[in-house]
Amino acid sequence: MSLSTTELSCCDERSSSLRRTILHTMRCGGRGHLASAYSLVEILRVLYDDILKIDPKNPDWVERDRCILSKGHGCLALYAILADKGFFPKEELEKFCSGDTILGGHPEYHKVPGVEATTGSLGHGPSIGVGYALSARMRGNDARVFVITGDGEINEGSVWEAAMCASKHKLENYTLLVDYNKLQSSGPVAEVQPLEPLADKWEAFGFAVREVDGHDPVALKELLSSVPFETGKPNAIICHTVKGKGIKDVEHNLKWHHKANVDSELMDSMFAELGGE
Amino acid sequence: MRKACLQEVHRLAGVDERVVFIGSDLGFGTLDEMRKDYPKRFFMEGISEANILGMAAGMALDGWMPYVNTIAPFITRRAYEQVIVDLCMHNVPVRLIGNGGGVVYAPLGPTHQAIEDLAVMRAAPNMTVVAVADADEMRRLMPLTLNESGPIYIRLAKGYDPIVTDDSQPFIIGRGLPFQKGKDLLLVTTGIGLRLARESMAALEAKGLSVGLLHMPTIKPFDSEMLLEMASQVKAVISVEEHSVIGGLGSAVAEVLAEACLDKPLRFKRLGLPDCFADSYGSQLSLMAGYGLSADGIVEAAKGLLEI
């Protein structure tokens, strides 16, 4: 399956609202991996709106599903959705990265309600997720685990160690989503560390693989509602996304991976583009 | 000691439902009995240290207490970032059991020798670091691990090491064990350093020295109070460890003594492995002796510190 950026769906109001929240958070903090967060918006939104069995009032509920954002630098999107769901007050977002907040530049387990693992160093989430999935099996409960990795992140060998392990244990309750936005920090994924044939790789590692337009909430919901895809296999979903999705200047623009100190004029025009004040 | 440790894991699994065992492609038949008794809590995974530590962290975050076992350098070097991020940052009760601490695997060469494991584990926030001296001490340690809420690194010695501890005083994690009080010299030991110290006692006492012996099975948290109490009685201190002189017991002792700003000058020597990789094979004891890490080496070090 190949999706060009023009074929990808446009953002609806729910997505635009989350993107505005993310931009506002970034403006308050004066920093943040905006583009990496924007490629995640629909994936996270569908998980938290339609898929995950969670209870914001009881974040430690033992039967809950776990979502691990292994690409921790995309945390602006996670914070936006967690605040939206009521895991913590929305005002906290305005303190992003300040000296007095639970919300740092990468998410921390002990600090942020709803965050299931401290991530930021890449390649750790998949194995922690395997541990959660095995734990659910030992307990005999129906909790499921969803791990979201970046595409650059899966350059890390530990990801493939976890993949082999999930496959060995036939973890049907384990779903790994790759945010395949085709860009990593230093350049296009296809040049820095090519991943293709990516679906074949996951297939070869014993996963049931599906591909989807990672910005299409309807398709994402349909797919995520149907896990496990096959008996006795963990699930891999390759989400074709656009880094920076939602704002033309940011989309698929390498300059935006680490960009900080956005001047207020540009900030205003970005808000306008997202339909905000 | 390894046998005692793993037998304890099996036994603890029977008394505490949180206990899980995770091995990394260990020798055929390892803990077969536990595999039979508690198949759901027994995992023998592939050669994937980073993965098993992450997996252990995930289980621990969900209420389990995984005991993870593989060769010491692989569990400490290979996946150090998983140790720091997955175990220490989450501060979860995962127990790392490292086979062949120090130069146990002398014949296998430096890839298999954990000469800096205590140093790197000691530098990891939230990590408890333990190196017991023999199988009996291991049996006293293991039940206590059920009560610790953070990660623990347990360093194993060779196996069939002579028994040099006794149960005259209770084993407490984080507490030093004063075996003997002295007025001239204090030997501070960890792991099988205790055995060497015991072997050197007769020769030291024959030279007219009054020797104190303080065993520190827990390197972190370190019992500074006990060390200072015993060090304040003597003229010289020697630390003895099967570990690099950088970052392990010797460093811990030096840090405490230096920061205590003692009134009287104290002579001090770190006895351990030098800052290099082994360049010969042979046996654990022959390699150690070559570095002066032996009973005779302790006597020589004492000669260098005191007029004897």
β-strand amount of chain A: 5-15%
Strand fraction of chain B: 15-25%
Average residue pLDDT of chain B: 97
For the termini of chain A, the CA-CA separation is 38 Å
Mean pLDDT of chain A: 95
- The H-and-E topology of chain B, N to C, reads as HEHEHEHHEHEHEEEHEEHEHEHH
Order of helices and strands of chain A: HHHEHHEHEEEHHEHEH
**Strand order in the largest sheet of chain A:** 1-2-3-7-6
Rg measurement of chain B, Å? 19 Å
Strand order of the largest sheet of chain B: 2-1-3-4-6-5-10
Total strand segments of chain A: 7
Helix content of chain A: 25-40%
Q: Which sheet architecture does the biggest sheet of chain B show?
A: 7 strands, mixed
Q: Main beta sheet of chain A: strand number and arrangement?
A: 5 strands, parallel
Coarse structural class of chain A: alpha/beta
Most extensive contact: A-B, 31 and 29 residues
Tell me the number of helical segments of chain B per DSSP (H or I, 4 or more residues long): 12
Q: What characteristic shape of chain B results from the CA principal axes?
A: globular
Please tell me how large the radius of gyration of chain A is: 18 Å
Q: Please identify the oligomeric state.
A: heterodimer
- Helix vs. strand class of chain B: alpha/beta
